[in-house]
Design goal:
Length: about 120
């Protein structure tokens, strides 16, 4: 099983990035997928979730209205479109997949997002 994030980088405040999480070794469409982030010196926090059942989405208040989570089950890829980026969005972003009614959990290795002022 592998979850591989990509798309991170350096961007100015107000800019945009799109992260991708490519999954292999799982029945992707059945997995609930989420994005998390961890800033230096802080705990990892949840950012957004998209379900594997009906594709319902939910967001942390800090990113609501700016970030959009989506998935392409045909390609086994999840995305996070990040707009209006703020300096405080700087963090390592991780994808997480949960399946088997919570029995299985997998994490990616993370991708760095740095937002400069």
């Amino acid at each position: 099983v592998q979850l591989v994030e990509s798309g991170g980088g350096l961007v100015q405040a107000g800019g945009s990035l799109r992260l991708s999480c490519a999954a292999s070794g799982i029945t992707f469409e059945t997995y609930h997928m989420g994005w998390y982030r961890q800033a230096p010196g802080k705990q990892r926090e949840w950012v957004a979730l998209i379900t594997g059942t009906d594709g319902s989405t939910s967001y942390a208040d800090s990113v609501k209205g700016r970030f959009t989570i989506s998935r392409d089950n045909a390609k086994n890829v999840m995305y996070l479109q990040m707009n209006s980026l703020k300096v405080e969005d700087t963090a390592v972003y991780f994808c997480r997949g949960v399946g088997g009614r919570g029995l299985y959990e997998y994490w990616g290795q993370g991708t760095q997002v740095t937002v400069s002022s």
